[in-house]
Amino acid sequence: MMRLIMLSPPGAGKGTHAAWLTAETGVAHISSGDLLRAEIARGSDLGRRLAEYTGRGALVPDDVMFDLITPVVVAADRDTGGYLLDGFPRTLPQALRAEEIGRQQDLGVDAVVYLVAPEPVLVDRLLARAAEQGRADDDPEVISHRLAVYAEATAPLIDHYRARGVLLEVDADRPVADIRVDLRHRLAERGLLDDEPGDGPG
Fold this sequence. Notes:
With about 200 residues, the chain is α/β, with parallel strands linked by helices.
């Protein structure tokens, strides 16, 4: 059983490290970005609304996000014994609402992994990803706006989770293997993961 939130600015590696953690534990990796892109790809009315926000790097309204994510989290916890939220919540109001829902449905978070890296590193990574994946939402202007939105809206979550005693701050400007060793040790200290590599979930 492991219920985690991955919190970090765009480009810090949430997706990479979340995928590794879910492979190690067997819990579901829930990426808010993947959910949004899947809905946009469907071409639904909701998808077109979402595209208007993501196309300019703005945050999607809270009610829409919770309609998308809550059923997925409930199903993940039921089916896999936990969840790993990647990229959500992004604002303090979202975090407070998520905690309220968590109390109501016994889905409280065990830890929040906060990946940090210098802004120039983040920009370089996002531009490289844009070139590799052909993502129209990762041009320089939108990247700059996304980082500004993060600094204004998401950074307050750091103090909130730190005050709750669940924040694990991890330097993400290192080789992936080093970050994994650090993550494993920090989560093992909380009884959420074995401190020695194994064969994945048993």
